[in-house]
Amino acid sequence: MQNVHTHILANGLTILLKPMHTAPVITAWLWYRVGSRNEGSGITGISHWVEHMLFKGTPDYPQGTIDRLIERNGGYLNGFTSRDYTAYYETLPADRIGLALQIEADRMINAVFDADEVERERTVILAELEGYANHPATWLDEAVHAAAFTVHPYHHPVIGYACDLHAITRADLYQHYQTYYMPNNAVLVLVGDFDPDALLATVVDLFGALPSGPPIPPVRAVEPEPQGERRLTIRRPGAAEYVQISYLTPDCRHADFAPLLVLNAVLSGARALSGGGVPTNRSARLYKALTETQLATNVYSAYIPSRDPYLFELGATVRQEHHAAEIEAVLLHEIARIQDQGITAEELARVHKQMRAQLAYSSESVTNQARMLGTWAMLDSHTRAATLLDELAAVQVADVQRVACAYLTEQRRIVGTFVPLADAAVVHEQDAAA
Amino acid sequence: MSYPTASLTRTLRHTLNNGMTVLIYPTPDVPVVSVRGDLLVGAVHEPDEQLAGLAVFTAAALIRGTQRRSFQQITAEIEARGCGVSVNAGMHTTNFSGKALPEDLPLVLELLAELLRQPTFPPHELNKLRGQYLMTLRESEQDTRYRASQALRELLFPVAHPYRRFASGTVDSLQQISRADLLRFHQYYHPANSTIVIVGAVQPEQVLRLLEQDFGDWQGTTPTPTLAPELPPVPPLRAIRREDVVLSGKVQTDIYWAVPGVRRTDPDFYAALIGNMVLGQFGMGGRLWHALREQQGIAYSVSSGLEAGFGAGPWLAYAGVNPHNVERAIEAVLAELARFVEQGCTPEEVDDVRAYLTGSLALGLETTGGIASTLLSIERFGLGLDYLDRYPALIHAVTLDEINAVARRYLTLDRYVLATAGPPASAG
Question: A-chain residues within 8 Å CB-CB of B75?
Answer without folding.
Answer: 282-283
